[in-house]
């Protein structure tokens, strides 16, 4: 597959798509109904359908009975952790094996031409990005994921969360399921802005940003506090009229859904002539520039708050202008403080 039909590669080997990132037309005004209809299949396929199916599969074959979940015990908690760990290993590992171990598409469609395994850094445990990311994923990420999953299932089993049945409330639950990605986007943006404040960035979020060149295992490589905040998106279902399956969908959207944004490739080659879009470029730019694209591209929150970067030269100019204004503001504040100090 010739990736230069879709983008350009610089001298360092970094690939950039020809088209800038665009927001989903869902929240664009005036409303463009035909654009929404054309975009709608991308809202479901392929990722959201995969996460929804995984939630249904969990409920059918993994989640214990309601009677069992009424009491928290080591047995079923350990069972859920084991299943989550195996599923993460298989799902994340499949991308890692295909793209980074076997390198089946070499560096085609890869944003950063270098591979993390080729570079040592003291920012990571054992100076290895992959080993650091894997350990953080399983020691903290899957553990906190499972803990919140257990807590929510216990709440449903004991009547502390609103549990609607699909038979009696099909349209209400369909609507809630439909807005799961919207809930995730809103929550992720708010949490992400929070952990970019200086104190939390230094002690919490910097762990994730050590992976400037993200790969699949970077997806859940976070500080435990960030894991708790990130997976906290599931708590919305303590107040929403929902269902345990939709709650699991919300959790899987966060857990398994972290992969597309960190896969490091714009497109994944499937067979000889099929491509699957990762929609990762917006978040890759966040890892590259740090202070842009706190959300993804579903809700235009970054545009509303002035932190949007679409990957175009114009987007880069807006970012540099924002940095310039901030430096000028800080310089003026410093000069004012020095003047006041001298006056004393």
UniProtKB/TrEMBL annotation:
Q: Which residues cross the membrane?
A: 43-61, 81-102, 138-157, 169-191
Residue ranges for the region (Disordered) are 313-344
Query: Is the keyword RNA-binding assigned to this protein?
Result: no
Q: Which UniProt keywords apply?
A: Membrane, Plasmid, Transmembrane, Transmembrane helix
Where is this chain's protein located in or outside the cell? Membrane
* Biased amino acid composition, Basic and acidic residues: 313-322
Principal location class:
membrane
Q: What InterPro entries does the record tag this protein with?
A: Fatty_acid_hydroxylase, Sterol_Desaturase_Related
| GO BP term (any one) | lipid biosynthetic process
Which segments constitute the Fatty acid hydroxylase domain? Answer: 178-307
State a GO cellular component annotated for this protein: membrane
Q: Name one GO molecular function term.
A: iron ion binding
Q: What is this protein called?
A: Sterol desaturase family protein
What organism is this sequence from?
Rhizobium grahamii
At the highest ranks, the source species' classification is:
Bacteria, Pseudomonadati, Pseudomonadota, Alphaproteobacteria, Hyphomicrobiales
